[in-house]
Amino acid sequence: MGPRASEEDLPEPVVRSGTRGLSVRSVIPNAITAAALCSGLTGIRFAIVDDWEKALFAIVLAGVLDGIDGRIARLLKAQSRFGAELDSLADSLSFGMAPALVLFLWALQDLPRFGWFAALGFAICCALRLARFNAQIDTEDQPHKSAGFLTGVPAPVGAGLAFLPMFLWLATGNDWFREPVLVAVWTALIAFLMISNLATMSWKSIRPGKNLRLGVIALGGLIFAALLTEPWWTLVMICAVYLALMPLGVARYARVRRLREQAAK
Q1: Locate the CDP-alcohol phosphatidyltransferase C-terminal domain: which residues (predicted)?
Q2: d(Cα 136, Cα 144) in Å, to the nearest integer?
């Protein structure tokens, strides 16, 4: 274990050295995790002064950093229990507490009582999801993961989906997307999806054929360019694609489960 790239990664043995404390090479991935934590919390600072674009960029940057710290840890063979715990704490703050407070300051504070409960529920559900993941990290019997699926919506993805009304508001300028009731209901829905038992597709389960790989590389470049030129519409599109793939993930896992049941007979 250690800083992980995502919840898709299977548990790896912790590398222990003969000396106490962190090794020099383990400082790099943990520093990236700390940077992700600082970036997520800085989003709250920007939200306090109503700088919504910078607030969203800070939390999106936290997601990018969270996606690379685990890969760097494995590349350097610097996995550690300390890194695993730091990563979970950073995820809870950057993708649970920070989005909840940003959404509250943006729209939910205009909805007395229920707006705060929606934000609070999102933060709690994110923490519960991460706690469930950590509790199952050494469990061998994980039907979803063994089939290449995730259980529920991952925390960074959940934060991105929760911001969908903000993305649409920034892209269109339409204040309807800032309607407190709409934002509260949407936030509660994403919070439920994070702690649900729905089988969701992981990036590892998407494997394009050899004849499509160059096209996928080109598509990745175009998406990056789109993020630079039209960031809000691009993020809306990414959210829409993920939501559209969720029923496909449920259907695919149902098929895998039927095949397992037939094989067990």
Answers
A1: 212-247
A2: 12
Distance (Å, whole) CA 33 – CA 70: 9
Show the tokens assigned to 170: 């920034």
Alpha-carbon distance 84 to 82, whole Å? 5
Q: 20-57 pLDDT, tens per residue?
A: 555 677 788 888 999 999 999 999 999 999 999 999 99
pTM as predicted: 0.85
Residue 212, C-beta contacts closer than 8 angstroms, at least 6 positions apart: none
Kindly report, residue by residue over 214-240, the tens digit of the pLDDT: 888 888 899 989 999 999 999 999 999
The pLDDT score that the predictor gives to residue 205 is 62
Strand partners, 150: 200
Here the tokens at position 121 are: 């529920």
| d(C-alpha 253, C-alpha 150), whole Å | 10
